[in-house]
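Hey team,

Filing this mostly as a record. A colleague (T.K.) asked me to run one chain through the structure pipeline before their review meeting, and I want the input and output archived in the tracker in case anyone asks later how it was produced. No errors, nothing strange. Just documentation.

Input sequence:
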Amino acid sequence: MRLIRLIAISLLLSTSPFTHFQAIGALPTPLPDFSGTWKMDLDLSSPKAISDLVDLTVVISHNPPELHVKRIIKEKNIRSVSAN
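Output structure:
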């Protein structure tokens, strides 16, 4: 009898707009935070991809729902020499 009552209640709740329930006392699921600074390891990268780079840093600031990505690229100072 109790099982039938639970089935009837669950059927009623599934048709209502309030179907998202959370257990009382349960902690809310934390949102991921992608904020941080990452530096490219030039030793683990292929030489062609980084031949002109001295440093590559990626700075991410995460303020939901926005995600800002800033690349800081330091290139080798290559000067062209013109022949006269």
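Quick notes for T.K.: The mean pLDDT is 75. The radius of gyration is 28 Å.
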